[in-house]
Amino acid sequence: MSYNINDKGYYGKFGGAYIPEMLYPNVEELRQNYLKIMSEPSFKSEFNQLLKDYVGRPSPLYFAKRLSEKYNTKIYLKREDLNHTGAHKVNNTIGQILMAQRLGKSRIIAETGAGQHGVATATVCALMGLTCIVYMGEVDIARQAPNVARMKMLGAEVRPALSGSRTLKDATNEAIRDWINNPIDTHYIIGSVVGPHPYPDMVARFQAVVSEEIQWQLQEKEGTTKPNYVLACVGGGSNAAGAFYHYLDDIDVKLIAVEAAGKGIHSGESAATSALGREGIIHGSKTLLMQTHDGQITEPYSISAGLDYPGVGPMHAHLYTSGRAEFISITDDQAMTAGLELSQLEGIIPAIESSHAFAVLEQKTFEPDDIVIINLSGRGDKDLQNYIDYFSY
Amino acid sequence: MNRIQKKLQENHKLLSIYFTAGYPSLEDTASIIQSLEKNGADMIEIGLPFSDPLADGPTIQASSTQALENGMTTNVLFNQLKDIRKTVSIPLILMGYFNPMLQYGVEAFCAKCQEIGIDGLIIPDLPVDVFNEHYKAIFDRHGLINVFLITPQTSIDRIKFIDSISKGFIYMVSTASVTGSNSGFGTEQTTYFKRIADMKLKNPQIVGFGISNNETFTQATQYAKGAIIGSAFIKHLKHAGTNKIGEFTASILNK
Questions:
Q1: Is the confidence at residue B111, as pLDDT, over 90?
Q2: How far apart are CA A280 and CA A308, in angstroms?
Q3: Which of A81, A292, A317, A323 is the most buried (most CB within 10 A)?
């Protein structure tokens, strides 16, 4: 059994492209070309060069000694927080901007939640001299002010999404509408492993560099390419897709996906899609999503803007329903506590998204000789005000 | 023969009107349908509101949000429509996004449509390819006509494929846009309308998106069989309420 995508664009029964006809020409053009373009030697060399010289890859695989001592196991951190722009998101935007250029597109649109993907998109647009418009929920604009300022300084236009809960889901709706309105010159850089096929697969492939590096870095440090566990937080699921990618079909490696429980799974304010979701269609993909009995998509909640999404990518829906990955939900409080702990034990302030993955250390016991890899997907600079506000009362 | 197919044989240009069920008030659905028929609409598209209408602009989005807040659900709509065929004889088409239908159960949804006397469905996010491969038999079994969209960017081959799958009309999206754009039609649109007319497809075309008045209705129907008005009608309902529907249709048909 393979846990990767099949040739029809599905992971098990999840995936596909449920899109209005207006989007068909763009999505079809991408579907027909993405693998071909990604396999061109010139594409590969430009992609790898930029990841090395511009992003600063490979990102370190760091043995977290004090954290390991506390939890009596061997914990390695994959330091995606050290990438240029501060998160894993840039791996994908570098890939997609090169893709957009080869497709002859001159105008770039993106959605963003925490602002990390928006910043990463604005960055590569500045790098390549392309017009950049980022849709961001009005609520997220308020809670991620530093990233809004960064996008503007990078030359991007930030357009507020004013519908629904005014968060990531609504920003995605607005970006899709923009693409419908601009079918010729525009490429939509989706920031996660969501959306219609081929996006989930394309984004996963661009993020796969994370687990590719983990394999050889772990070989150097531990004499094996295989950890016992890989942990990553999941909103849409792009950092998890990257960290899991080369281990998907290697069932010796246990995969743990960490979702945001918000104020508690059954509090009515949560974003724990695997626990609360049912099969349905969101943003062009058949996957698990939070919805009413009647099929209306419900408003999620998490303290972390990057995890505040009512669906998961189809790869993760399949990993969950097949049992390949274990899904754990972490509340706001547990995540914030874990973020503070990492700061004070290792001198690393994580993004609140990533803090959710660290909170699993309190929930689950690992063996002393287990190798546990935690994908530290982003740095916490953007969240300082949220941490300060949280711990001040 | 289905009511849509019969209507398409009439020898005049057709006016089709879209409205969002449950807007402006929850219980307006049946009276809006009856009033539209009385005032000259040839066909009606009843919008099943959805929380995340990707292909719709701000006007229909807002009406959908309002309708959901008013309490509209799939079951409520089916209940409101259960006796509609006692008073209304023009074709009725349900337009809605796929997820609510999937949750209801596609088979059950289609059976209910048939029972009520719904003639066809427009499901913008159920692509013709997925429909053809997985769902066609279900819709066919219940006598429902599925209507598919084409746009100025749709390739010739795909238009031919859509024509081969369709049994009623082809929904010709006038401009690359979401619903409710209001900039009028230029030579780009009329060239496109003529280009499609010249393909001599087996299904007639009805133009939608961007039609808001007599001028755009006339332009759209120069080459096509009819035109669909959505956002402009929603705006009319918002400002004038449900009592002046006749004024709206008269302004479109210039009567």
A1: yes
A2: 18
A3: A317
